[in-house]
Specification:
TOG; two-stranded antiparallel ribbon; single chain; about 65% helix; 56 helices; three-stranded antiparallel sheet; about 1150 residues; Leucine-rich Repeat Variant; mainly alpha; repeat; transport; globular
Length: about 1150
C-alpha cells in the first residue's frame, strides 16, 4: 500500500468532527480502524506509513494525531513481533526522525506531545528486560494471559541518544523543549534504567529547575513528571530525601494552578503523589490540608475541582493514615461538616419515592462523593479519630426540620459503621433506638435512609446486631412493607430485611417466621395485582428476593410454608416472559431454586421436574438472550442449586445446560491497551483499568460476573456428578486451565483452581493414562499460576487445588524434577513471607505508628497466616503421598520452618510451623528424627505456651511422635509427660478457649501410653490420672484414639481401669454413654462397635448393668439404648480377632454367636 492509499484509509476512518468527539468515540474509531484494511498491512509497513503521515506537516492535525495514536499502539502491542525485522540502519533512522520531530519547536504542540509519548514507548520497549515479557493483547483473539517478572537491576537503555536528547532539551533555552523532555520522562520514568542512580544529581536538578521555571506549562509538566517519577521509585526511601526540596516548589505550583488555571492536571498529580508516595508530603501536610479545604469551600470553582481537592485529602488519609491522624484535630472539625453538607445536596424530587424504575445515581454528584468520602475516611482513620466529629454533626442534622438533613444524617451513620466498628459497638443500643424512630418519619426518603442504616448495620455488626435487636428491627422493617404509597421506600425495607436475614442465626429468624411469612404473602399478592393492572414491578422484584433470603436462612423450617408460595412463584416464572420482566423472572428463578435447596429434595421433587422443563426451555432460548440480559446470571445460579438438590439425577440435563454454560465461561472481554492520559475508560462505568507493571489495560466488565458464575457452576457439576460429568471433562479442562491466569477477575481464577482436582476425579473413569495426560496439561500452568498469583485469596485456592490434585493422583503425580520445581516455588513464597513480616516490623518503627496502624498490620498478619496455612496444606499432601521420599526436597524448606518456630515469631507462624513438623513426624516416622534439633525442644516448650493454638499443635506433635515415631522418640515421649500432665491439670484447661488444646494433650498421652511407653516409669499411677481426665468429646478426630485405647485396656483386663470387683465399670459405661449422646463417637464406627460389644456383654450381667444405668441421665440412657439397638454393616463392625487376641480375655459366645469378653469371678475380676 502506497502513502496516498494509506492516507485515504486513515481519512475514511476519521474526519475533523470525529476527532473532536469524546475519547470514547475515538476509541471506537481506533477499533474500527483495527478491524478493517489496516489489519491486512504488515506491522513493519504500518510503522513506515504511520511515521510518514506523522512527519508530514502538510497533513491536517487530526490525521497526524491519529497516526501518532496508532503508531504508539503499534509499539505497545506488537513491538517484539515487528521491530527485529528492521535493519539497524532503519531502526536508527526511525529513532533519529522521532527526536528530530520533537526538536521542531514550531510544530503543533499536541502533535509534539504525542511524539514524545511514542519516544517514551519505544525507549521502554528497547530496555534489555521489559517488565512484561509479552504484554501484547491481540484484539481479535483477546489474548490476556500475562507473565509477571521484575526489571533487572542491570537494565541499560538501548537508545543512548534519547538520554542525551533529554538532558539537552531539559537544559535548553526553549521552554517547549523542556516541556517535551518532561513529557517523555513522565511517560517513562524508568528511562534511565540502571544509570538512574549515577544520574541522581542531574535528574534532581532538572526537576528543581523546571519547578521554578517562569513558564507555567513547564512548571505544570514538571509537577506531573515528578509525580510519575516518585511513583516509579516509591519503594526507594532515599529518593524521598533527595527530592524533598522539590516539595515546596510543587505546592507552590499546585497553588498557582488553582488560582490561575482551569487545568487540573497539577492537582491530579498531587493525588498521584498522595497515593503512591504519601511520605514525601509529610513536611507540608498542614499546608496541603489547608489548601484543599479552601478549594473545597471555594464556590467559584467547578465541582470537579472541589471533588479533586477532597480526593487529595481522602487518598492521603488512606495511604498515610498514621500521618494524617496526627493532624486530624486541626482539620476534621472542618472536613467532616463539609462532607455532610455535600450529602445534603439532594434534589427535592416529589416523584422520587413513587418511581418504579430506579436510575443509578450520578457518581460525581455531591451527595455520592460526600458519602463515599466519609466512608473511606472512617475506614482509613478509624473510629477514635472520626466518630466524635461525625456524631456531633449528625445529632444536629437529625433534628433539622429539612428532610434532606435528616436523610444525610442517617446515611452518614450507614457509611460510618464499617470504619468505626469498635467504637460504635459500644453505643449500638443508643444508635439503633435513635434510627428506629425515623422508620415513622413523615418524609419517605428519610424512612428510606433509616432502612438503609439498619440494613448496613446488619452487615457491619453482623451476629451481635441480629442477636440484640431482632425483636425491634424485624417488626420495624416489616412495617415499612405496608408503605404502598411509596414503593421505592417499601422496596428498600425489603432489601434491609435481606441484609438482616443473611447474617441472622436461624433460630432467631424462626422465632419471627410466622409474622414475616404473613407480611410477605400479603405484599406479594398485592404487588402481583399491581403488576397485572399497572405494570409496576419494583417492589415485587424485591419481595421475591426477600422471600428467597428468608428461605435460605431458615432452611428446613421453611417447609410448612412451601405450598403457600411455590404455586405463585411457578405461575410468575412461567408468565413473566415480556422483555420488561427479565429481572423479575431472573429473581423468581433464584427464589424457586433457593426454596428448593432449603426444604430439600424430598419436598421439592414434586415441583422440581415441572420447573426443570421451564428452565430447560429458557436454556434452549439462551442464544436469544443478550450478553446484558440479567436472566443469564440467575439462570446459571438456579441450575447450580438444582444440581446440588438432584445430585446424580441432574445428569440427564447436562446435554442441555452444558453448551450455554461453557459459552458463558468462555466469554472473552473486550480489552484495550491504554496510553498515558487516556482517562475515558476510567470514567466509564462499563470499563475497569488493570495496571500491570507500567502498562495500563482497559477491560470492559459486562459479562465478567456471568463468566465467573459459569465457572463456579462447572465446579459444582464436576464436584456433585463426578463420573457422570466425564463426557465434559476434556472440554472443561481445556477451558479452565488457561483461566488460572485470567487476571481480570479473581473469581474466575479461583473457580479454575478449585475445578482441577474435581476434574481429575471425574476423569478416573477413563483410566490412569487419560488422567496422567490431563495432569500433564494442568500441572505446568498450575505451578506458574502459584508462582505469580498477586491475590492472596486466589493464591490460597491455588495451593489448596494443588494439594488435592497430589492426593488424588498419588505418587505418580509428580516427577523428581517437578517435585524440585514445586519446592522451589514454595521456598520463594516462604521467603516472601519473611520479607512481608520484616516490612511490617519496619512500619512498627515508623514515626507515624499508632494503635490503628497496628490493627491494619494485624490484618496483614491474618492474610499472611492464611497463605501459610494453605502452603502447609500442600506440604501435608506431599508428605501424605510421598512420605519419606519427599524429605530430600523438604531439606530446602527446613531453615524456614525452623525460623518460623522461634519464640519471637507470631502465633500463626509458630502454629503452622508446628503443623508442618507434626506432618513430618506423622508421615515419615523415625526418618524425621534427623531434624529433631530443629523442632524438638521448641515443640516441648510450646506445650506450655500461652496460646491454646500453639499448645494444641505441639500436643498433637507429641501424639504422632508416640504413635508413629518409633523407639528413637521414646525418651522424648517420656520426658514430655510431666508438661502434658501439668497443662491438662490447669484449673481453666476445660474452658471454651482451652478445651481443644487440652483434649489434644489427652489424646497425645493416650498415644504415648499405647504405642511408645518403653521409657515411662510408674505407668499404672499415671494411668489412673489419665482415666480421671475422661470424658472428651469436642475434638472428634482425637476421640477415637482415646476411646480406642480405653477399649484396649478393658479388653486386656487392665486392673487400673476395671477396678477392684469391677468397681470402675459403671464409670466406663457412663463414658460410653456420654460419647454416644454427644456424638463424639459414631456408633457405627470401628471404635463405636467395640464399645457396643462391651456394652452388650455388661448387659448380660444384670447387677452390674443396673448399677450402670442408675447413674446415667435420661439423655445418656436414650443414647445407650439407641447404640445397643443399632445394627452395624459388616464393614463397620470391629473384627472379633481384635477382641479376642488381647491377653487376659477369654472368648465365649452369647446367644447370637457373638464373641464377648468374660467377667472373671475373682479378686481381680475384670472385663
Amino acid at each position: 500500500m502506497d502513502d496516498q492509499a494509506f492516507l485515504n484509509t486513515l481519512q475514511s476512518c476519521l474526519d475533523a468532527d470525529n476527532f473532536k468527539r469524546q475519547a470514547a468515540e475515538v476509541r471506537k474509531i481506533v477499533q474500527k480502524f483495527n478491524d478493517d484494511e489496516y489489519q491486512k498491512i504488515p506491522d513493519e509497513q504500518k510503522t513506515i506509513l504511520l511515521m510518514s503521515a506523522l512527519c508530514n506537516v502538510q497533513l491536517s492535525s487530526p490525521i497526524r494525531a491519529f497516526a501518532a495514536v496508532m503508531l504508539r499502539r503499534l509499539f505497545s502491542t506488537n513491538f517484539e513481533a515487528f521491530w527485529p525485522k528492521f535493519s539497524q540502519e532503519q531502526q536508527g533512522a526511525l529513532k533519529k526522525e522521532l527526536l528530530l520531530r520533537i526538536s521542531h519547536i514550531d510544530d503543533d504542540e499536541t502533535i509534539r506531545k504525542k511524539i514524545c509519548n511514542i519516544v517514551a514507548e519505544l525507549a521502554k520497549n528497547l530496555m534489555e528486560n521489559v517488565l512484561l515479557r509479552n504484554h501484547a493483547i491481540h484484539r481479535k483473539e483477546h489474548v490476556f494471559m500475562f507473565d509477571f517478572c521484575n526489571i533487572d537491576d542491570n537494565d541499560t537503555n538501548q537508545w543512548p541518544e534519547v538520554l542525551q536528547f533529554l538532558f539537552e532539551s531539559a537544559n535548553s533555552n526553549h521552554n517547549s523543549l523542556k516541556e517535551s523532555a518532561l513529557v517523555i520522562f513522565e511517560s517513562f520514568p524508568g528511562i534511565f534504567g540502571s544509570q538512574a542512580e549515577q544520574l541522581t544529581t542531574l535528574i534532581h536538578q532538572i526537576f528543581l529547575s523546571c519547578l521554578n521555571n517562569p513558564d507555567v506549562k513547564v512548571r505544570y509538566t514538571a509537577a506531573t513528571a515528578l509525580a510519575a517519577f516518585l511513583k516509579h521509585n516509591n519503594e526507594d526511601n532515599r529518593i524521598l530525601t533527595v527530592y524533598r526540596d522539590c516539595l515546596s516548589c510543587l505546592i507552590s505550583t499546585v497553588t498557582h494552578s488553582l488560582q490561575n488555571s482551569d487545568e487540573d492536571t497539577v492537582l491530579k498529580a498531587l493525588i498521584d503523589i498522595a497515593e503512591n508516595s504519601p511520605k514525601f508530603l509529610r513536611p507540608s501536610i498542614d499546608e496541603i490540608f489547608e489548601l484543599c479545604l479552601q478549594s473545597m469551600q471555594n464556590e467559584n470553582f467547578e465541582e470537579t475541582r472541589r471533588h479533586l481537592s477532597l480526593e487529595v485529602l481522602v487518598t492521603l488519609s488512606e495511604t498515610a493514615s498514621g500521618m494524617v491522624r496526627k493532624v486530624a484535630r486541626k482539620f476534621m472539625n472542618r472536613l467532616v461538616p463539609q462532607l455532610l453538607e455535600m450529602m445534603v445536596d439532594l434534589d427535592d424530587d416529589k416523584e422520587w419515592s413513587t418511581k418504579d424504575t430506579i436510575e443509578d445515581e450520578e457518581d460525581d454528584s455531591n451527595a455520592v462523593i460526600g458519602e463515599s468520602s466519609l466512608d473511606r475516611l472512617a475506614c482509613a482513620l478509624g473510629g477514635k479519630t472520626m466518630l466524635q466529629y461525625i456524631l456531633s454533626a449528625v445529632q444536629t442534622m437529625l433534628q433539622n426540620p429539612d428532610w434532606r438533613y435528616r436523610h444525610a444524617g442517617l446515611m452518614a451513620l450507614s457509611a460510618t459503621g464499617e470504619g468505626c466498628h469498635r467504637e460504635m459497638s459500644n453505643i449500638l443500643d443508643e444508635l439503633v433506638s435513635g434510627i428506629l424512630v425515623f422508620l415513622k418519619d413523615s418524609h419517605p426518603r428519610v424512612r428510606y435512609a433509616a432502612c438503609n442504616a439498619l440494613g448496613q448495620m446488619s452487615t457491619d455488626f453482623q451476629g451481635i446486631f441480629q442477636k440484640k435487636f431482632h425483636s425491634v428491627v424485624i417488626p420495624g422493617l416489616l412495617s415499612i412493607l405496608d408503605d404502598h404509597d411509596n414503593p421505592r421506600t417499601q422496596a428498600h425495607g425489603g432489601a434491609a430485611l435481606v441484609n438482616f436475614a443473611e447474617d441472622c442465626p436461624q433460630r432467631l429468624l424462626v422465632e419471627h417466621l410466622p409474622m414475616i411469612i404473613d407480611k410477605l404473602d400479603q405484599v406479594l399478592l398485592r404487588k402481583y395485582q399491581e403488576l397485572c393492572t399497572q405494570n409496576r414491578k419494583l417492589v415485587l422484584e424485591q419481595i421475591v428476593t426477600t422471600l428467597a433470603a428468608i428461605a435460605d436462612t431458615v432452611a428446613q423450617d421453611f417447609s410448612p410454608y412451601y405450598d403457600r408460595f411455590m404455586p405463585q412463584l411457578k405461575y410468575l416464572f412461567k408468565n413473566a416472559i415480556a422483555p420488561d420482566y427479565r429481572m423479575l423472572r431472573g429473581k423468581t428463578m433464584e427464589c424457586i431454586s433457593l426454596i428448593g435447596l432449603a426444604v430439600g429434595k424430598e419436598k421439592f421433587i414434586n415441583d422440581c421436574y415441572e420447573i426443570m422443563q421451564d428452565l430447560v426451555k429458557t436454556q434452549v432460548d439462551f442464544e436469544n438472550l443478550g450478553n446484558d440480559d440479567p436472566q443469564i446470571a440467575y439462570l446459571i445460579g438456579a441450575w447450580t442449586r438444582i444440581c446440588k438438590i438432584l445430585g446424580k439425577d441432574f445428569e440427564q440435563y447436562l446435554p442441555i445446560v452444558m453448551g450455554p454454560v461453557l459459552k458463558a465461561a468462555a466469554f472473552k472481554p473486550e480489552v484495550t491497551v491504554l496510553a498515558d492520559g487516556e482517562t475515558d475508560v476510567e470514567e466509564d462505568d462499563n470499563w475497569e483499568v488493570l495496571n500491570v507493571g507500567d502498562q495500563a489495560f482497559g477491560i470492559k466488565t459486562s459479562g465478567l460476573e456471568e463468566k465467573s458464575s459459569a465457572c463456579s457452576m462447572l465446579v459444582c457439576y464436576a464436584r456433585e456428578l463426578k463420573e457422570g460429568f466425564v463426557n465434559y471433562v476434556e472440554e472443561t479442562t481445556r477451558l479452565m486451565v488457561p483461566l488460572l491466569r485470567f487476571y481480570f477477575h479473581e473469581g474466575v481464577r479461583a473457580a479454575a483452581a478449585e475445578a482441577l482436582p474435581h476434574l481429575l476425579e471425574c476423569a478416573k473413569l477413563r483410566g490412569d493414562d487419560y488422567v496422567r495426560q490431563m495432569w500433564q496439561y494442568m500441572n505446568k500452568e498450575l505451578f506458574k499460576a502459584i508462582e505469580i498469583e498477586p491475590d492472596h485469596e486466589v493464591l490460597g485456592e491455588l495451593f489448596s487445588s494443588l494439594g488435592k490434585c497430589v492426593e488424588t493422583l498419588g505418587v505418580s503425580c509428580l516427577t523428581g524434577d517437578e517435585l524440585k520445581e514445586l519446592t522451589t516455588i514454595l521456598d520463594q513464597h516462604l521467603k516472601k513471607h519473611f520479607e512481608r513480616c520484616d516490612e511490617r516490623q519496619e512500619k512498627r518503627r515508623d514515626e507515624d505508628f499508632d494503635e490503628e496502624v497496628e490493627e491494619e498490620l494485624l490484618e496483614e498478619d491474618d492474610f499472611d497466616a492464611y497463605i501459610l496455612n494453605r502452603l502447609s496444606d500442600i506440604i501435608h499432601s506431599l508428605l501424605v503421598t510421598y512420605s519419606e521420599s519427599y524429605l530430600v526436597y523438604f531439606e530446602t524448606l527446613v531453615p524456614h520452618f525452623y525460623q518460623l518456630l522461634q519464640a519471637q515469631r507470631s502465633v500463626s507462624d509458630r502454629q503452622w510451623s508446628l503443623c508442618v513438623w507434626d506432618d513430618v513426624i506423622q508421615y515419615t516416622g523415625q526418618a524425621s528424627f534427623r531434624y529433631q534439633q530443629y523442632f524438638l525442644q521448641r515443640m516441648a516448650d510450646s506445650v506450655q505456651d500461652a496460646s491454646p493454638e500453639i499448645r494444641q499443635a505441639a500436643s498433637y506433635g507429641f501424639g504422632v511422635m508416640g504413635m508413629n515415631g518409633g523407639p528413637v522418640y521414646a525418651r522424648a515421649c517420656a520426658d514430655i509427660l510431666p508438661r502434658l500432665f501439668q497443662m491438662i491439670d490447669q484449673p481453666d484447661s476445660r474452658s471454651t478457649e482451652n478445651n481443644t488444646a487440652t483434649e489434644n494433650a489427652i489424646a497425645a498421652v493416650s498415644k504415648i501410653f499405647k504405642y511408645n511407653n518403653s521409657q515411662i516409669e510408674n505407668f499404672n499411677k499415671l494411668l489412673q490420672v489419665w482415666f480421671s481426665w475422661l470424658p472428651i468429646h469436642e475434638d472428634t478426630e482425637e476421640t477415637p484414639h482415646v476411646y480406642g485405647y480405653l477399649c484396649d485396656l478393658i479388653e486386656s483386663n487392665n486392673p487400673v481401669i476395671v477396678g477392684a470387683e469391677n468397681c470402675n465399670v459403671p464409670a466406663v459405661i457412663r463414658l460410653f454413654a456420654d460419647s454416644f449422646s454427644k456424638s463424639s463417637i459414631e456408633v457405627n464406627s470401628i471404635v463405636g462397635q467395640r464399645m457396643v460389644l462391651i456394652l452388650k456383654h455388661v448387659q448380660t450381667i444384670p447387677t452390674i448393668f443396673q448399677t450402670c444405668m442408675a447413674i446415667l441421665s435420661i439423655e445418656e440412657r436414650n443414647a445407650l439404648a439407641a447404640a445397643l439397638s443399632a445394627t452395624a454393616t459388616p464393614a463397620q463392625t470391629h473384627s472379633n480377632s481384635t477382641l479376642t487376641s488381647s491377653v487376659g480375655v477369654m472368648p465365649t459366645h452369647n446367644g447370637r454367636g457373638e464373641h464377648v469378653p468374660v467377667i472373671m469371678n475373682n479378686h481381680h475380676a475384670s472385663l
